[in-house]
Amino acid sequence: MNNRQVETYKKTVLPNGLKIITETIPYVRSVSLGLWLDVGSRDEPDPAMGISHFIEHMVFKGTRTRTPSQIASHLESVGGVLNAFTGREQTCFYAKFLDEHLAKGVEILFDLITNPLFYAPDIEKEKKVILEEIRDIEDSPGELVHDLFAETIFSDHPLGRPILGNKKTVMALNRAKVLRYVGKHYRPGKIIVAASGNLQHEQLVELTEKYIDARKLPISPNGRKKPQFKPVRRMFRRNTNQTHICLGLPTRAFTDESRSAMLLMNSMMGGGMSSRLFQNLREELGLVYTVYSFLDFFADNGIFGIYLGTDKTNAARALAAIRKEIDLITSEKLSDFEVSSAKEQLKGNLMLGLENTSNRMNRLAKHELLAERHISLDETIASIDAVTPDKVTEIAREIFQGKEFSAVTLGPVKGNIYSELE
């Protein structure tokens, strides 16, 4: 039997606006469950930068029914895991467990978001934890350069804010601010319950209705404004062993029909060991250990970026090599073989990733949040297969030609290395 044929997608919207989406996979024994809230660092007021991430931490400090240690042991005691993360546009609380523990998983996740205590002493203690997390990133230049890049390419737009906030805004948080933010954003109409694995959709709907407010609470508009991009280049001098560089340009949004062409172009440029950037900068020239390209999609825009770490003496040569690869992909006719290989790589990575129920759950939620619909695996593969070499060239030219890169350099490099990008 073809296992793909027995996977079942279902969606229910409750009267209070909460969405429940599931993908039933009866041949596995696990369930990955996520409570996704459509709020992230993009939605924060300036004086409260980092509050979304701070709340994600604080719900684990105790609820009206559990101590922190009881929260930690609730699923771990039966072999499950419980965690959370905050992004620029969403906050997610998630769990993975054996299928027989679905009720336990649903109950603990809703306990976290509906019953947190937010005790003032715990808030003061957690501020110190967050400051250590900020310091940890500051001590990791390979991570820090991505935050600096986001701040640079998005300029003063909220998407450029560090998800963790900064020392000043974190220290200014208090219980009143936290409760006000939760009251505004943690509402049923802004929640998606996503699950993938061996479960019944109807059972999840029933369990969800048991733990969530049935009232349809009003939701204020998120007020998100589309960023206006202007090329900016910055250099941060630091005495590190490597020079870390991040550069990029805006692209179309996730829902655009050219998404598959963008993904293929990204794969060809820097999506793996066979990519142009890896083969040229590392294998042929020996200028880097790490180089890759990436696509970040948001609700109304996207970013194509390139990261590399190199010795300061090689930084200019590395950027010149990147410029050469960009010129080639926009000017030369792409071979059917290279595009076909990129398609197989992209489809293979997708299929292998979907052997994990956590990845499938994330995919369900992301599609609902970004496209407001389910994009099946068959539709995705068909979209990839339909891309022609000319379409890849077309999107590469649209992204790269006649445009200046935004760029950030973090390290000991001196001089204007950005002239190599011209």
Number of helices in the DSSP assignment: 15
User: What's the overall average pLDDT, rounded?
Assistant: 95
Largest sheet: 6 strands, mixed
- Name of the top-level CATH class of the largest domain: Alpha Beta
- C-alpha termini separation: 55 Å
Oligomer: single chain
- Helical percent range? 40-55%
List the helices and strands in order. EEEHHEEHHHHHEHEEHHEEHHHHHE
Description:
The chain starts with 7 loop residues before the first strand and ends in an 11-residue tail after the last strand. It has helices at about 50-60, 70-75, 100-115, 120-140, 140-155, 165-170, 175-185, 200-210, 260-270, 275-285, 315-330, 335-355, 355-370, 375-385, 390-400, and strands at about 10-15, 20-25, 30-35, 80-85, 90-100, 190-195, 235, 245-250, 290-295, 300-310, 405-410. Mean pLDDT is about 95; it is low at about 1-5. A hairpin with a 4-residue loop joins strand 9 and strand 10. It folds into 2 domains: about 5-210, Cytochrome Bc1 Complex, Chain A, domain 1, CATH 3.30.830.10; about 235-420, 2-Layer Sandwich (Cytochrome Bc1 Complex, Chain A, domain 1). The longest helix has 19 residues, at about 120-140. The strands form 2 sheets. Strands 1-2-6-3-5-4 form a 6-stranded mixed β-sheet, with helices on both faces. Strands 7-11-8-10-9 form a 5-stranded mixed β-sheet, sandwiched between helices. With about 425 residues, the protein is of the alpha+beta class. The radius of gyration is 23 Å and the shape is globular.
Strand and helix map with partners:
Blueprint: E1 8-13, E2 19-24, E3 30-37, H1 51-58, H2 68-76, E4 81-86, E5 91-98, H3 102-114, H4 120-138, H5 141-153, H6 167-171, H7 175-185, E6 191-197, H8 201-211, E7 233-237, E8 243-251, H9 259-270, H10 276-284, E9 288-297, E10 302-310, H11 315-331, H12 336-353, H13 357-371, H14 377-385, H15 389-400, E11 406-411
Parallel strand pairs: 2-6, 7-11
Antiparallel strand pairs: 1-2, 3-5, 3-6, 4-5, 8-10, 8-11, 9-10
Helix pairs in contact: 3-8, 9-12, 9-15, 10-11, 11-15
